[in-house]
Amino acid sequence: MKIAVFGTGLLGRPIAERLAAAGFEVIAYNRTQAKAEPLREAGIAVAQHPWEAASAAECLILMLADYGAIRNVILDDAVRKVLRGRTVIQMATIGPDDSRALAAEVREAGGDYFECPVLGSVAEAQAGKLLLMVGSEEGQLDRWQQVLTALGPEPRLIGQVGQAAALKLALNHLIAAETAAFALSLGIVMRESIRVDDFLAILRNSALYAPTFDKKLPRLLDRNYTNPNFSTRHLLKDVNLCLAEADRLGLRTESLRGLPILLARTIELGLAEADYSALYEAVNPRRIGATDTAG
Fold this sequence. Notes:
CATH class of the largest domain: Alpha Beta
Number of domains: 2
């Protein structure tokens, strides 16, 4: 089986490498060609045009940045003509209605489509331990089980197309909300010169604790957001998608509306491609003449 991976960014690249290591023949395409070139070292072919990748594969895995990028690449006239008989597995984070619209267009072109957004970062992708959420018609998960289990041990059927996309937005909301909340709490602790060890000792033994706090703590203490697991720019996109979906569903979103403001401010600070924990810079900006201390 030959698989085409579209989008070789932070997650797309290790996904392509993982599939190749599992024995699949992989061809990759990225809109910025230079980002895909390192995959050649793993024996992965790199396409110059999306049509080249789509026409060479039975299965097209999408890890493109957003819905606009997906439409520009997969529904390009040349690509649309070769979708017949091929399966598109959409793994990026997009809105539920966008996923349903994409499914309709792929099927109209004669292809098959289902969504499978993933939760996890680069390390999980490299280890084949991503959490996979499937929105599909009956039988699609079984048909592509071998491909999916190369990326995550237990792909979970959530429901129809759109439902897995909505679940991914709900989860990514928690990424932003928990990180912003922890950043504010840590800022209070630091500015009051309370020992961070005391703060964490109590937090870890309470129902308030989430593992992401310890994972991100070193970045926040050092104000070091290099080698990102997930960028600020992409988290802002996902938070805005979540906000739009919550509004559509008639939910109250006051608690959510501050998050895009913080993330936009972080991007204004030049941290668009940094790890999303850089929102700490917006929550707890550096003070002239002051030095961060762990208390």
